[in-house]
Structure of Spermidine/putrescine transport system ATP-binding protein:
Amino acid sequence: MIEFNNISFRYPGSNSGLNDINLKINKGELLAILGQSGSGKTTLLKLIAGFEKPDSGIIRVNNKDITPLSCQQRNLGIVFQDYALFPHMTVLENIAYPLKLKNIDKDSRLARAAAMVQKTGLSGKEQMRPANLSGGQQQRVALARALIFEPAALLLDEPLSALDAGLREEMRQEIRQLQQQLGITTILITHDQEEAMSMADQVAVMKNGCLLQVDHPTNLYHKPKTVDVANFVGRANILPAMALGAHRIECALGQLQVHAPELKAGQPLHIMIRPEHWRPIPDEYNTFAVEHLNTVFWGPSCQATVMINGTVIKAEGRFHTAPTHLSIHPEHIHLIS
Ligand SMILES: Nc1ncnc2c1ncn2[C@@H]1O[C@H](COP(=O)(O)OP(=O)(O)OP(=O)(O)O)[C@@H](O)[C@H]1O
C-alpha cells in the first residue's frame, strides 16, 4: 500500500510543484498517473522515490513513513523511460546487479536472476548485451532488474514510450500480467490515456500540480467530475447548460431530457456526451435534425462532424451514410455541476 497524506512541494525559487496531494494505492493495485506535460507526474514520482523531499506531508509504504528515508532505504523498484541498462553487462548481470549492491553472494544472485529471466520471458537471452536486444526485450530486462530484490512497490516512469504502437500494446498486457502475478503495488506514470485506462485499477488525473480525480477507469470515462477531466480523458462534446427542473436542461442544442430527478430550475451546469453515444436515427428522446459537415473513416468506425442548431457536434459509429438525425438517450447525457 502507498499513501500520500497532504503532500506539498515547491521547486526552490519557482512556483512549480505539487499542491496538497492525497492519494491511496491499495496493496497489489496499479495506479496510473495521467496528465499533460508539466502537470507534475514526474515530480510525484521523484517524491516517492526519494529524489526530492516534500515541504510538508507524509508518504507511507505498507504503513511505514518513508518520508525521512534515502532513496536506497525505501526499497522501491524503478523503471525509467530510457531503461538505463548497463551496456557492458549481459542480460543476466544487469538483472542481478541490484543484488550485488546488497552484497548477496554470486551463486544466489545468479539463481535469483535466472528465475526472474523466466518470469519476464527472457529465456535464451541471458548472455546477450542490451545493444543486441529489441526495445521490448530491453524493457523486460529493466523490469526484471527493478523486481529482483522484491521491492515494496514498483514505480514505472513512461516505461513504454520508446516502443512502437504494436509492441506497446503487447507490453502493456505483459507488464499488467506480471504485476498482478507478483501482486506488487505499482505506480505507472504516463501521458497515454489508453495505457492508463487499459492497465490500471485506478487512474489519477493531474493538472498544475493538483490531483483532479482519482477513480476507476470506467468512472473516469463515463462520470468525470469536472469539465477539465471530461476534456482531457477521451473525446467528448461538452456544453454549458441550465437546469429547467427535474430531468430537463437547456443548452445550445435546445431542450434535453436527462436522467436527473434532483435538478432544480436555474441550476447552471455542463453536459457531456461521448461521441459514440449518439445514435444516427430518430428516437422518442432528444432527437435532432443535423446538418452534416464531414465524416472521417477510421476503420472500425467513422467520426461524423455535424451542426445542430449552430453548434458543432462530434458523433462516432458505423455510419453507412451521412446521418440526417442524431438522438441521444437521457442515460448517456452526463451532468457536471
Ligand atoms: N528542477 C526543477 N526546477 C523547477 N521547476 C521544475 C523542475 N522540474 C520540473 N519543474 C516544473 O514542475 C512542473 C511539473 O513538472 P513534471 O516534470 O513533474 O511534469 P510532468 O507531468 O512529469 O511532465 P512530462 O510529462 O513532460 O514529463 C513543470 O511546470 C516543470 O516545469
Observations:
- The helical segments are 41-49, 91-101, 106-119, 135-147, 165-182, 193-199, 217-222, 227-232.
- The chain has a mean pLDDT of 93.
